[in-house]
Structures are given as C-alpha cells and as structure tokens.
Design brief:
With 309 residues, the chain is α+β, with helices and mostly antiparallel strands. The chain has eight helices and nine strands.
C-alpha cells in the first residue's frame, strides 16, 4: 500500500508540474487569464502558471496568415453582376486585442472584405473592373488595414484572385476578342500583301534598270569596237597610202591599178558600170600598161637564179 501511495503521489506531482510549467514555441504567444480576467501575454520561452488560478485563454500564432475567401457576388456601376474571390494576407500584432477585440476574427475579416469589395466595385464599370485590379487591391488593403487595427491585426496585402463575369458577358467578350484577332489578322495580311507588292515592284524596277544599263553598256562596247575597227582600217589605209607615196609609183602603175578597179566593177555583179570620161586616152593607157608589164617580165627574167646550198 505504501508503494502504491508513493506512486500515486509521484503521478500527481508530475501532472501538477506539467500543468504549471509551460513552454511557448517560436512565433507564438499565449494570452493568460487569472480568475477570469486578463493577466498577461506569454511570449516565446518557459513560463510558470498558477494551478487552478491561471488559465491560457488563447494561443495565437504571430506568423503571416493567408486566408482565401470564397467568391462574393458584386454589382458593377453598369449593373453587371459578377463573382469575385479575394485572398487576404494578415498578421496578428497584438494577441490581447485579437483575443478580446472581436468574436471570430477570421469571419469578421471575411465579412469586411466582402462589403468593402462591393463598395469599390459599385463605383467601377465592367471594363474598369477587369483592368483595375491593382487599384482594387490597394483600396481594399488600406480600408481593411485601418478597420482591423482595433482587433490587433495588420493586413499586409489583398489580392483579387478571380473575376468571373456572367456567362453572356463572357460570350460577348470572347466574340469581341475573336473579332479583334480577326481584325489584326486582316491588317497584318494587308500589310504583308502591300509589302510584297512593293518589293515585287522594286525588284522589277531594279531588273529594268539593270537590263537598260546592260543594253547601254553593250551598245557602247559595240560602238567602241566598231570605232576601233574603223580606226584600224583607216590606219591601214593611211599606212598603205603612205607606203605607196614613199615608193613613188610611176604613172603607168597607177593607171594599171585603176584599170583593175574598173575590171572588178564590170565583173557582172554590179548593177551599174562606171565608164571613165577620157575614153580617148584609153588606148594610150593600155599601151603604157603593156610596156610596163613587159618591163616587169624582163626584170624578172634578168634576175640570176638562186643556188640551193
């Protein structure tokens, strides 16, 4: 019996010690009441509680809390009803005010968020609501932060998560978006065709210019070639005349060459025959030519034969 009594006594002492000694974890705070009234707030560390007198009224986390609220129906300035859900980031700064300031702090924040959102959206039209999320977030954060100060709560951020307009509005927006995409597509296609035609015209223009330049250069080259050919012919004729002048040909030789020219003119191919005007001198010219030929034959006969070695 004595052993059992000692064991029961040890258990009671351990339970009493466990109820007296309390450890508050990091980023937490305990609100302690004594005889039903607020006594103190325990921060992180080891604390002793008076048994049967002190009571931990609330255990509060000091971390930032993210609260995602369900979608709320709101009406815009142009009478369009839509569903908007929000996310509120808040942190408890005063555990005593959080415990005694309001009943159901999370419910109070949710209700306050819904009413604030309705007030803000009621001043905006549909298009402004869809494009003014930053403005809505800023206004809601300022209003909620001020309203929750007496509750020991600091609202850090408020984000509009989703904006869900009615089905007919969504269909109308989709049609408008589709029409806008088709309009942009038509504009881009027209600009592409315009650019293509401009490039084609510029290409044809450059091709014409290049062909004209090539034709011009070809004509210039051909003309220069003809000019050079004529120049060479004239130079050859001038050189021939110069050589004849330096050789000092006799009158009979010149007459013979003239007769050869007349012979070529009268070979039957020409359509006109030129007859010299001094026909009375023809016989004398022929006689002189015959003598000239005889002299050439005699000179050729008089040359000594070449001896082959």
């Amino acid at each position: 019996m004595q052993i059992i009594f000692i064991a029961v006594l040890v258990v009671l002492l351990a339970a009493l010690l466990f109820s007296i000694v309390k450890v508050v974890p990091q980023a937490n705070a305990y609100v302690v009441e004594r005889l039903g009234a607020y006594n103190t707030t325990w921060n992180t560390g080891l604390h002793l509680k008076m048994p049967f007198i002190d009571r931990i009224a609330n255990k509060v986390t000091l971390k930032e809390v993210v609260q995602d609220f369900a979608p709320q129906p709101v009406i815009t300035k142009d009478n369009v009803t839509m569903q908007i859900d929000t996310v509120v980031y808040y942190q408890i700064t005063d555990p005593k005010l959080y415990t005694y300031g309001v009943v159901g702090p999370v419910t109070a924040i949710e209700t306050l968020t819904a009413t604030t959102l309705r007030n803000i959206i009621g001043e905006l039209e549909l298009d402004e609501t869809l494009t003014s999320r930053d403005i809505i977030n800023t206004k809601m954060r300022a209003i909620l932060d001020e309203a929750t100060d007496p509750w020991g709560i600091k609202v850090g951020r408020v984000e509009v998560k989703n904006i869900i307009p009615p089905r007919d509005i969504q269909e109308s927006m989709e049609k408008q978006m589709r029409a806008e995409r088709e309009r942009r597509e038509s504009i881009l296609k027209a600009e592409g065709e315009k650019r293509s035609r401009i490039l084609t015209a510029e290409g044809e223009k450059e091709a014409l210019v290049l062909r004209a330049n090539a034709q011009k250069e070809a004509m210039i080259a051909e003309a220069e070639g003809k000019a050079q050919a004529m120049e060479r012919v004239y130079e050859a004729e001038a050189k021939g005349i110069e050589m004849i002048r330096n050789a000092d040909p006799s009158k009979e030789y010149l007459s013979l060459q003239g007769l050869k020219t007349y012979e070529k003119l009268a070979d039957g191919k020409a359509t006109k025959i030129v007859v010299p005007s001094d026909l009375q001198n023809m016989a004398s010219l022929l006689t002189a030519a015959r003598e000239f030929v005889k002299e050439e034959d005699a000179a050729a006969t008089a040359q000594p034969p070449k001896v082959k070695r």
